[in-house]
Amino acid sequence: MTEIIIEELTNMGLNLQDIRGQGYDNGSNMKGDKARVQSRIKNLNSRAFYVPCSKLTLKPLSATRWESRIEALKPLRFQIGEVYNALLSIYENQDIDNLIRDESSGLLNCIKQFKFLCSIVVWYKILNCINPISKLMQTKDFDQASALDLLKNCKKFFKDLRSDKSFNESLIAAGELAAEIDIEANFESTIPRHRIRRKKNIFPYESRDKPIEDPKEKYKI
């Protein structure tokens, strides 16, 4: 199995030394720490640390690009607590390389931002809207009428996505993710590194644009 994984990485043009983690199901031939897949790969690259994935589902290598993005985002959308705990356990493990622990700390800092959680919710909605159209239009003889219906629905989706109702729904969903990792569901007010550059008025009747100071409104726009 180790040889198959390495061969597939080579076929995809990926360098084994660039790996910073491994995740498999709980099969003993995969997760074992002696002469098993994760152990053999770690012997080849000490930074390929193992993270157990009890709910991992293997997907065909031929998955479409959009579907692959959805699958990559799904753990953050629906298993944020498990992802957070895994990163935290890596950060707190003194036996792990400091560079890896620093990377885990940076990821934890991102996850703990409420605006990041909101972006996860919104982005997942967008991908779920685009994915059916993408899959349909990649078929050999797709039905144009069905494609047009999906495109119309997608157009309506993006229009509704900018509404106050949709925004508030996303805030509620993001709030549930925030509660799962025990952070406050509010937008952080941060001090910008540089002053906001004001737009120069060309005509005398133009008024100055006031910078948006409310973090929530700034994110919404």
What key attributes describe this structure?
221 residues; mainly alpha; 2 domains; 10 helices; 0% strand
In a few lines, what is going on in this structure?
The protein has 221 residues and is mostly helical.
Verbal overview:
The chain has 221 residues and is an all-alpha fold. The protein folds into two domains: 1-58, no CATH class; 60-188 and 210-221, no CATH class. The protein contains ten helices and no strands. Helix 4 (65-78) crosses helix 5 (80-92).
Task: Tell me the major beta sheet.
Answer: none
Number of domains: 2
Task: Find the structural class using helix and strand composition.
Answer: mainly alpha
Apparent shape: flat
Radius of gyration, rounded?
A: 22 Å
Strand content: under 5%
Q: Count of DSSP E strands?
A: 0
Give the mean pLDDT: 78
The percentage helix is: 55-70%
Number of helices: 10
The rounded distance between the terminal residues' Cα atoms is 49 Å
State the low-pLDDT regions, or none: 55-64, 189-197
Order of helices and strands: HHHHHHHHHH
Summarize the topology.
Blueprint: H1 2-11, H2 28-31, H3 37-44, H4 65-78, H5 80-92, H6 98-111, H7 114-137, H8 144-161, H9 164-180, H10 215-220
Helix pairs in contact: 4-5, 4-7, 5-6, 7-8, 7-9
